[in-house]
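user: can you give me the structure for this one chain? tokens are fine.
assistant: on it. calling the predictor now.
[tool input]
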Amino acid sequence: MRSTIFSPEVDVYYVVASLLFAAFRLEKFDGSIPFDFNTWINLGQCCTGYPNNQLVNVITLELTFPLCGLILGNVIRSWLWDYAITMTVIHILLSCLVMLSFPLDWSWWVCLGFALLMMVICGETVAFVHRKKKEAQVSPKDSKAIHRALVQALNFRGVRASHQFIYVRK
């Protein structure tokens, strides 16, 4: 069994990239997809004339990070922003090692920054929902108090109620 700190992001990246490569009907699936910043779009061209492989790289990046945020929000549930930033720094280091250069293209940095922001927002939203759901859970002690309040409210409305049964007057 493989155990690495960056496994979730890379695994999701390859799944999304595989689906997009099939959808765009590209011929060559390159294993360095998650780390390739050399074949990147130029945001200055204003969305015209991009080759399919560049589109797949961008869409894969922009889908993978929020998906990882959703997954990690269900698992970690606290300090997700710290984990996301750490994962992004590891991603940058691995990209430099795989491509044997440093990314100088500003559009890659903008896309990576936006993807990181979306990962944090998605993950923290899921974690927030989990925290609120946990706060809203009723303990057995609270459920007795809720039952007593319900019985009192029903007695006030003319319904005969006890702590075990609730009878409706006919």
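assistant: here you go. The chain has two domains: 7-135, 140-170. Residues 1-6 have pLDDT under 50 and may be disordered.
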